Each structure stands twice: as structure tokens, then as C-alpha cells.
Amino acid sequence: MMHMTLYWGVQVTLLVDSWRTDSWPSYLLTLLACALSSAFYQYLEDRRLRLKSAAASYAPAPSSTEPSSASPLIPKLHRLRRLNQAKLASTVLFGVNSAIGYLLMLAIMSFNGGVFLSIVAGLTVGYWLFRCDDEEVSAVENPCACA
Fold first, then answer.
1. Cα(55)–Cα(92) distance, integer angstroms
2. How many whole angstroms from its chain centre is CA 24?
3. Cβ atoms of residues 104 and 38 within 8 Å
4. Best exposed site among 13, 45, 73, 118 by fewest CB in 10 Å?
5. Percent of the chain residues topping a pLDDT of 70
6. 89 assigned to some structural domain
7. pTM here?
């Protein structure tokens, strides 16, 4: 039976029927897995934002309204390749990060207090380790793990 209110207990079914805990060691390993997954989410988000920032720096500069003979109308091919590779990598990271975020959300929906606290602690520690000092990477902050 699925819980619909927050409960505290060692017996948890997380994400799939085969991931069940029934003892303290399995419960603590599950909480550790949740915390590490949450911190890894923050790490991937940092990598994605840095890659997106790098892709923006490779983008050709917008031309002025009056074309000049010094700047070509077609950007150099090697710059376009790097831009496309960076965009593709950023897009793949976004997809992977979204999947991890939704899995974390579903884990929280187990309504186990320990799972909830371990995910929030993992997100907090991951933010502190990987994203707290992001001065050169500007992005809209969103505390939701699945955003």
C-alpha cells in the first residue's frame, strides 16, 4: 500500500517494486544513494550551464546593420561545428538532468521522511560543492530538482 502522508520508517519501496528496504543497512544505503544522486544532479546542472555558456561564447558575433568587407557574411565552418557540438552536448545533458530530476521527484513521492531529507540534503550539499560560486555562469535559479 502506498503512503499518502509523510511517514518515518525503515520499510520503503523506492521507484520500482524490486527496490525495497526492510532493514537498517538497506535503508541507510538507499538514503546514501538518494543523497549522492541529488548531489550528482547539481554537478550535471553545473556542467550543463558551463557548456551552454561556452557555446554562447563560440557563437558568431551579430553583424551590424551595414556589412563591412572585413567581416564575412558566412561564419567560419570550424566555429559552427564547435557551436553545434556544444549545443548537442548541452541538449543531451539537459535530457539526462531532467530524467534524474524527475526520478528524484518520484523518490520523494514515496512520502518517506528519511528519503525526503536525504534528497534535500544531497541537493543542498551538491549546490554548495558545485554551484555556489558560479559567478561567471548566469542562470535563473530554480530550486525544483525537476526543472
1. 14
2. 29
3. yes
4. 73
5. 72
6. yes
7. 0.76
